[in-house]
Amino acid sequence: MSQRRAGSTEPSAEPPQPAHASTPAEFAAALRTLRLWTGLTYRQLEDKAAAHTDPLPASTVATTLGRTTLPRERFVVAFTRACGLSEEDVRQWLEVRRRIATEEPAPTGDEGGDDRDVSTNGVSAPAHASRWRQAAALLGAASIAVVGTLGVDSFFNGTPAPATPPSLPVTGLRMLAVGSWARIHPARAPELCLTEGRDRTGRYRTAVTAQRLCTKAVLPLVFLEPLGKDTVQIQWHHPKYGIGCLTVLMKGPGRDLLEPRDDCADDNRAQQFRIEPFGPPATAHFRIRPVATGRCLSLRDQDTKDGSEVVQGRCSGAADQDFLIELISPPQVAAGRT
């Protein structure tokens, strides 16, 4: 079935297919690829599902796509229909899902194998952030090992972005209305990238945001999801842990740090960030302000070292609150891959 991208007048390529998916994680990655191919936001998918009389809250879509377990059939049906697929295409997705389900052992414990339970008011019950709560010893080398074994190209299908975005959801940044892949750099040290790191004080022992050499920041991949004018959700995409949304920690030993959490929700103010031009016009410099507090992201103690933690603090205009946002092409399929 020929599909068109949102905001485009030209037919796009055929929709991604799940035929090569053989594990729950690969099937979940295929669903994420399909969502990116449509050019639809979570809210738009919710509206399109409602047109088919399918209940599909945006928060459920975000959480389910962030998991690496197999979603329920009802989610697959509602989601693929909302993506605009024909009934024949929907049937093919279901067949692959059923094939994987018959080959996969039943989930145990709190892994979860479906979209979250939906309450009577349509709001999904909260999910925990266990997949991203990894000890510091697992960072770095483990991420590189995942790239070697799974391959970034097995996580995404490399669908190219339109050459001209239909709108500018962030002032001064030519980001797509559906969101864009990006790298975020400290302006004073553009060889560094904001990525996965650890709290060097040892008080908070799970993954947090830090600056590291971009050559070491292979994973996670960063995706900026527009939530409103000049406001985004900063997502981390990982082939093992799924999607984690950067969340400002308000209390406890990790207070003011940023942690990736898999309970992504458009209405969680701790996961909303305002992107503002910073410095002279047309310099592509920005400061990033958590909506929940109105403060500014900066580097702990204005540190310039590799591994310095990103924290929120008083907006001072200091150099460590100046960031470059580099929009990048979607991850590409390796040459020769079928």
Structural class: alpha+beta
The rough form would be described as: globular
Stated plainly, the CATH topology of the largest domain is called: Trefoil (Acidic Fibroblast Growth Factor, subunit A)
Oligomer: single chain
Order of helices and strands: HHHHHHEEEEEEEEEEEE
Give a topology summary.
Layout: H1 24-38, H2 42-51, H3 58-66, H4 73-82, H5 87-103, H6 141-150, E1 180-186, E2 192-197, E3 208-213, E4 221-228, E5 231-238, E6 242-248, E7 258-261, E8 273-277, E9 285-290, E10 296-299, E11 310-313, E12 323-328
Antiparallel strand pairs: 1-4, 1-12, 2-3, 4-5, 5-6, 5-8, 6-7, 8-9, 9-12, 10-11
Helix pairs in contact: 2-3, 2-4, 4-5
Describe the structure.
There is one protein chain. The chain has helices at residues 24-38, 42-51, 58-66, 73-82, 87-103, 141-150, and strands at 180-186, 192-197, 208-213, 221-228, 231-238, 242-248, 258-261, 273-277, 285-290, 296-299, 310-313, 323-328. It has 338 residues and is α+β, with helices and mostly antiparallel strands. It has 2 domains: 24-120, 434 Repressor (Amino-terminal Domain) (Orthogonal Bundle); 141-328, Trefoil (Acidic Fibroblast Growth Factor, subunit A), CATH 2.80.10. α2 crosses α3, α2 packs across α4 (73-82) and α4 packs antiparallel against α5 (87-103). The longest helix is centred in the first third of the chain and has 17 residues, at 87-103.
